[in-house]
Amino acid sequence: MSETVGVAGAEPGWRALCPLAAIPPGGAKGFPPDPGRFTGIFAVRRGERVFVYLNACPHLGVSLDIVPDRFLAPGGQRIRCQTHGAEFRIEDGFCLKGPCAGASLTPVPSRVDGETVWIGPVPD
Question: Could you give the CA distance from residue 107 to residue 15 in angstroms, rounded to a whole number?
């Protein structure tokens, strides 16, 4: 992921993540960590909305996808940790069941502007 500089209307700390079309409708896509970081992020697309989270289960901090880009439970209505089976709401990352029930995924600020997905600063 690279910093976008000089884009009209871009806020400090925000950068382009990818084209909206890079995330399948109703699907999810993972992104590697920034240089010097250990944890990547992932994005889930619902129509023209995109929800972005750190790729770390609150239970043990492991990546949610064992197979690349497999972040969703069967049926695509929840995010699932492939290691422990915890399930999270897509809209807010709240854990509904599993070993971390009641915890939440760490959100990354995001927005869709035109055909581009933008993210704000990635939390530690």
Answer: 16
Q: How far apart are CA 39 and CA 63, in angstroms?
A: 8
For the chain, first and last CA: distance in Å?
A: 16
Query: Is 97 strand, coil or helix?
Result: strand
Is 12 strand, coil or helix? coil
What is the full per-residue pLDDT of the chain (124 aa) written as tens digits? 444 444 544 678 899 999 999 999 999 999 999 999 999 999 999 999 999 999 999 998 899 999 999 999 999 999 999 999 999 999 999 999 999 999 999 999 999 999 999 999 999 8
